[in-house]
C-alpha cells in the first residue's frame, strides 16, 4: 500500500494509516510509552516485547486469523521483496551503542519467568518503519504546514521515537505451551508453501495448530475471560556517553514497562480502531495532510494513549534496575 499509493495520497491530501488494530497499536504506543522513561542522560539500546495471552478458560483463535497466518507465510518471499524495495527509499536506522544480538528462537526469560519464543510479528516491521520515518524527518501536520511557528512540534514528534533494536516474542508459561507453538509453527512453515499443503492447513486448523485455532473461534465466555499483557524490556545506558564512546560497552540499565488489556481480537482491536478513527475525525489538523503511514508516525503525539486507558487498556511502568 505504501509503495503503490504513498505519493498519490500525499498529492491528494488523503491520509492512510495501516495496522490500527491489535497489530500494531499496543506495540507502537506501548513502545512510545516505554521510551518516555529513558530520561537523559540515559539512552536506550534495545527493547524486546513479550506477548502473553492469559485466560481463565481454554481460549482458541478464529480460523480467520489462522488463514491470514497461513497465507502470510505462503507469501513470505513476495513480502521480503516488497520490504527490500521499501527500504531503498527509507532512512537507515542507526542505533547508538552495542550492535543487535541475533534473536534466540527459544529461551527462558528469568526476568519475566516465562518461556520466550521468537515471533516473526508484523509489529517488528511496523515499528521499524516508524523509526525510519522519524529518522528521515517526521511529516508535518496540517497546522504545522500553515504556521511555521509550530515547527518545534515536529521536532518533538521526531524525539519520541528514539532508534532501538526491537524484537517480539511470545511469552509462554510452560514447556508444553512451547511445544504446542513449535508444532504449529513447523507445520505452517513446511506446508504453507505448497497449494496442497495450504489446503490441508485450512481444512484441519485444529489439528495443525494443536487446538489453538478452531472453526467458529471462541465463544463469548472465552472472549470475556481472556486478557493480554505485552512487556517491554528495554536495555541501555545510564549515561549516553557510554554508547558513543569509541568502543561501545554493553548496556548497564534495564527498564520494564507493560501494556495490558482485554482479549486481543474481538475487544482490544475494536477499541484501538475506533479511537484512532475518532482522533482522525476530531483532530485532523494535528495530523499529516496525506500519505500512507504507520500508526506511530500519525498518532504518536496525539492523546491516543489516554483514550486507550479510558477504554480499559493499561500502560504501566514496572521497574528500573542496573544490570
Automatic annotation (TrEMBL):
GO annotation (BP), single: glycolipid biosynthetic process
Species of the source: Ceratopteris richardii
Domain of life: Eukaryota
Membrane-spanning intervals of the chain: 175-196
Cellular-component GO terms for this entry: lipid droplet; mitochondrion; plasma membrane
UniProt keyword terms in alphabetical order: Membrane, Transmembrane, Transmembrane helix
Protein name, entry field: Saccharopine dehydrogenase
Amino acid at each position: 500500500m505504501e509503495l503503490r499509493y504513498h505519493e498519490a495520497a500525499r498529492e491528494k491530501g488523503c491520509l492512510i494509516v495501516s495496522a490500527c488494530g491489535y497489530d500494531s497499536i499496543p506495540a507502537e504506543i506501548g513502545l512510545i510509552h516505554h521510551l518516555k522513561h529513558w530520561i537523559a542522560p540515559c539512552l536506550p539500546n534495545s527493547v524486546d516485547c513479550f506477548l502473553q495471552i492469559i485466560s481463565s478458560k481454554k481460549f482458541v483463535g478464529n480460523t480467520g486469523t489462522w488463514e491470514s497466518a497461513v497465507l502470510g507465510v505462503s507469501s513470505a518471499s513476495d513480502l521480503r521483496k516488497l520490504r527490500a524495495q521499501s527500504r531503498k527509499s527509507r532512512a537507515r536506522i542507526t542505533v547508538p551503542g552495542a550492535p543487535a544480538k541475533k534473536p534466540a528462537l527459544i529461551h527462558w526469560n528469568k526476568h519475566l519467568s516465562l518461556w520466550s519464543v521468537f515471533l516473526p510479528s508484523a509489529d517488528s516491521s511496523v515499528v521499524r518503519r516508524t523509526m525510519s520515518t522519524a529518522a528521515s524527518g517526521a511529516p508535518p501536520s496540517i497546522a504545522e504546514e500553515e504556521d511555521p511557528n509550530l515547527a518545534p512540534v515536529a521536532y518533538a514528534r521526531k524525539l519520541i521515537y528514539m532508534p532501538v533494536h526491537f524484537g517480539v516474542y511470545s511469552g509462554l508459561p510452560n514447556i508444553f505451551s512451547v511445544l504446542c507453538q513449535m508444532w504449529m509453527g513447523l507445520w505452517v512453515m513446511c506446508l504453507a508453501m505448497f497449494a496442497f499443503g495450504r489446503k490441508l492447513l485450512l481444512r484441519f486448523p485444529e489439528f495443525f495448530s494443536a487446538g489453538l485455532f478452531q472453526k467458529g473461534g471462541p465463544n463469548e465466555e472465552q472472549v470475556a475471560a481472556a486478557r493480554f499483557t505485552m512487556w517491554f524490556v528495554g536495555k541501555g545506558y545510564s549515561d549516553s556517553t557510554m554508547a558513543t564512546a569509541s568502543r561501545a560497552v554493553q548496556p548497564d540499565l534495564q527498564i520494564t514497562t507493560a501494556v495490558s488489556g482485554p482479549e486481543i481480537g474481538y475487544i482490544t482491536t475494536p477499541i484501538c480502531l475506533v479511537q484512532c478513527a475518532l482522533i482522525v475525525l476530531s483532530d485532523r489538523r494535528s495530523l499529516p495532510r496525506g500519505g500512507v503511514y504507520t500508526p506511530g508516525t500519525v498518532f504518536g503525539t496525539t492523546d491516543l494513549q489516554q483514550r486507550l486507558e479510558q477504554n480499559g487498556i493499561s500502560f504501566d511502568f514496572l521497574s528500573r534496575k542496573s544490570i
